[in-house]
Q: What sequence folds into this?
């Protein structure tokens, strides 16, 4: 109603109870405009994130392991778990389904950067930025583990001298911190 894309409002005033960023809201608005202002229209982005998570698991399993069965099993388990695909995340239009998609993407991109090519670092940073834009600080819970993993694998120094690392970090800063700076300015 307010047409304010950066701040959530209640009764025409900025709303400060929910301090989460706006990515899920933006996706819900786009979905509702396409599918109608119904429960389905508002819940579709979270449900679709669960399906993308499962498809990502299958694709990665098929591509990296040569067999899609493990990924299909992981996807099936996620889709039938009541806490993930049920009332808490996917069906409730909750942030957690979208957050888990971006966190899985960040993990896979980081793993690919370690195992295959540092060019995946850019996608890692973008996935991390999308996680932060979904649920704020919760999107930054895994990076300390990534840092430890890079240290253990002796990849920290090579990563630090890689263009994909720095361009991705800049993209992360622009997206994540840029959103928060703009939101604070408009609120």
A:
């Amino acid at each position: 109603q307010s047409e304010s894309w950066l701040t959530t409002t209640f009764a025409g005033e900025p709303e400060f109870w929910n301090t989460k960023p706006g990515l899920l809201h933006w996706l819900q608005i786009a979905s509702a405009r396409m599918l109608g202002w119904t429960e389905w229209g508002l819940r579709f982005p979270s449900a679709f994130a669960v399906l993308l998570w499962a498809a990502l698991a299958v694709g990665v399993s098929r591509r990296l392991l040569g067999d899609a069965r493990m990924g299909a099993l992981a996807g099936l388990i996620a889709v039938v778990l009541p806490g993930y695909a049920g009332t808490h995340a996917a069906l409730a239009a909750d942030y957690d389904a979208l957050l888990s998609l971006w966190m899985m993407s960040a993990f896979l991109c980081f793993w690919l950067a370690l195992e295959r090519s540092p060019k995946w670092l850019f996608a890692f940073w973008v996935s991390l930025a999308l996680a932060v834009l979904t649920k704020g600080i919760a999107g930054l819970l895994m990076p300390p583990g990534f840092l430890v993993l890079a240290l253990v694998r002796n990849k920290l120094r090579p990563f630090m001298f890689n263009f994909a690392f720095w361009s991705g970090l800049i993209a992360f800063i622009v997206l994540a911190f840029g959103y928060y700076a703009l939101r604070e300015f408009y609120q």
